[in-house]
């Protein structure tokens, strides 16, 4: 049910999560009142006062106790009757940042098509190779985007514009926006990119410029807080199940065959968990949120030995960030500032080899890492539809003068979320939830170490 008014709740997501309250204000900044009639004449316009009240659970917001729900009122996405920018004089820019993800080209295409065909904007530019493309010293050319140039890009994976990682000075980026006379900047990227977009918007506001900054959250890991499901996730799961099916076939093809599949998921195990639910052939799933034990009576090695003894094959799915408590980190960071994760699958394979050889259990292990295949493929039909809505709603928001926000689908509604909400934390899988229970029931695995009640909730130390 739609509700009017703004939500300005301030609450602590978890006693252990932070000493400071999390700001749950859902108000969306706006550059000013609309002065121009929206050229769209065939649709229902959305009133700025139209809001929807949504009850969020621990599967959408990290840091909730599991017994607690968070009810917030969000501004609905969609075209406004009056727009802030004069369409025929408005120039837009699109930038893609971070790792690849199925559907990026679909979002780019949707933005360009909507901007030209629905609003007849003056121009739309693509910034090459992420935020570096704004900085003159990198010498990246700007790409003009037209309906003709983006017509077929949704048939291909990756990003037409290229991408890069790492921060760039917001002052230099805003300098470039001023030079190019950009009215609306669309940022497609993950948590770090949305933080960068927030810094750009803050610099724009400090200078008193009339530039709208609109984000489209992108993460293949589905770990953006407050967003039910990120684009590309459905495609990633579909591709992951193909690798798992191959691992299962390999495992069945040998006495005591083991198929091990490594999937993406630095901090969250959503791809691994959803893939397990989609394909009921996995016996063990290891995710970052659950600190499993390797040795001992309750450990993975003991459970694996029992599985091979009784069924003579096993399939193990491992999220890349699982088991980090078992390995020593190098302390090195990538260009985005993320810690470089040690190879958990290498450790598991060595430990399995030593354990089964000591127990005189013959085995064959086939290891599959489909990560770069998964993230580089074109989006499937469901994700294409989703990306289309995101791109269209991003243009509607930008033309209306909305700024400092992302367009997102929360549950089944397309809404506007302020940057500070989606960057407040990374969404984690709650292993005390019904969802994780369903995963365990699908695999049949027992608790590999500590009881779930002893494990920290997402957001807790």
UniProtKB/TrEMBL annotation:
Names of required cofactors: Mg(2+)
Name recorded for this polypeptide: Phosphofructokinase
Provide the GO biological process annotations.
Answer: fructose 6-phosphate metabolic process
Domain Phosphofructokinase per the UniProt entry, residue ranges: 91-397
UniProt keyword annotations, A-Z? ATP-binding, Glycolysis, Kinase, Magnesium, Metal-binding, Nucleotide-binding, Transferase
Ranges for the region named Disordered are 1-25
Q: Which family does it belong to?
A: Belongs to the phosphofructokinase type A (PFKA) family.
* Organism expressing this protein natively: Alkalidesulfovibrio alkalitolerans DSM 16529
Any one of the GO CC terms: cytoplasm
Q: What is the annotated role of this protein in its UniProt record?
A: Catalyzes the phosphorylation of D-fructose 6-phosphate, the first committing step of glycolysis. Uses inorganic phosphate (PPi) as phosphoryl donor instead of ATP like common ATP-dependent phosphofructokinases (ATP-PFKs), which renders the reaction reversible, and can thus function both in glycolysis and gluconeogenesis. Consistently, PPi-PFK can replace the enzymes of both the forward (ATP-PFK) and reverse (fructose-bisphosphatase (FBPase)) reactions.
UniProt keyword annotation of Manganese present: no
Its recorded reaction(s) are:
beta-D-fructose 6-phosphate + ATP = beta-D-fructose 1,6-bisphosphate + ADP + H(+); beta-D-fructose 6-phosphate + diphosphate = beta-D-fructose 1,6-bisphosphate + phosphate + H(+)
């Amino acid at each position: 049910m739609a509700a009017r008014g703004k939500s300005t709740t301030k609450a602590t997501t978890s006693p252990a999560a932070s000493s400071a309250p999390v700001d749950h204000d859902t108000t969306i900044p706006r550059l000013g009142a609309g002065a121009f009639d929206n050229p769209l004449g065939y649709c229902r316009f959305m009133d700025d006062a139209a809001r929807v009240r949504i009850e969020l659970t621990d599967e959408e917001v990290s840091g909730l106790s599991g017994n607690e729900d968070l009810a917030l009122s969000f501004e609905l996405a969609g075209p406004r009757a009056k727009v802030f920018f004069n369409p025929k004089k408005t120039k837009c820019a699109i930038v893609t940042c971070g790792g690849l993800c199925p559907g990026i080209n679909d979002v780019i295409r949707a933005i360009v098509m909507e901007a030209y065909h629905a609003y007849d904007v003056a121009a739309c530019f693509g910034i090459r190779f992420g935020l570096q493309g704004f900085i003159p010293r990198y010498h990246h050319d700007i790409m003009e985007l037209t309906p003709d140039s983006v017509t077929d890009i949704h048939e291909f994976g990756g990003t037409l514009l290229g991408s890069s990682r790492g921060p760039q000075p917001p002052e230099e980026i805003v300098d470039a926006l001023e030079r190019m006379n950009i009215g609306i900047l669309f940022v497609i990227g993950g948590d770090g990119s949305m933080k960068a977009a927030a810094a750009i918007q803050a610099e724009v506001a400090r200078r008193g410029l009339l530039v709208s900054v609109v984000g489209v959250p992108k993460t293949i890991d589905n770990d953006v807080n407050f967003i039910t499901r990120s684009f590309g996730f459905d495609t990633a799961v579909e591709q992951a199940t193909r690798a798992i099916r191959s691992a299962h076939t390999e495992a069945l093809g040998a006495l005591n065959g083991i198929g091990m599949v490594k999937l993406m998921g630095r901090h969250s195990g959503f791809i691994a968990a959803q893939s397990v639910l989609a394909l009921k052939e996995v016996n063990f799933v290891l995710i970052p949120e659950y600190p499993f034990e390797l040795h001992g009576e309750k450990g993975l090695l003991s459970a694996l030995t029992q599985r091979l003894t009784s069924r003579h094959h096993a399939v193990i799915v491992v999220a890349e960030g699982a088991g980090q408590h078992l390995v020593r980190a190098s302390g090195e960071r990538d260009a985005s500032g993320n810690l470089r994760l040690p190879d958990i699958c290498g450790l598991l394979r060595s430990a399995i080899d030593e354990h089964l050889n000591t127990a005189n259990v013959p085995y064959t292990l086939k290891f599959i890492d489909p990560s770069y295949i998964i993230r580089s493929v074109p989006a499937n039909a469901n994700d294409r539809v989703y990306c289309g809505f995101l791109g269209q709603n991003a243009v509607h928001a930008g033309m209306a003068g909305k700024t400092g926000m992302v367009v997102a689908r929360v549950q089944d509604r397309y809404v506007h979320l302020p940057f500070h909400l989606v960057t407040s934390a990374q969404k984690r899988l709650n292993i005390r939830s019904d969802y994780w229970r369903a995963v365990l029931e699908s695999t049949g695995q027992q608790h590999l170490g500590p009881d779930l009640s002893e494990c920290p909730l997402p957001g807790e130390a």
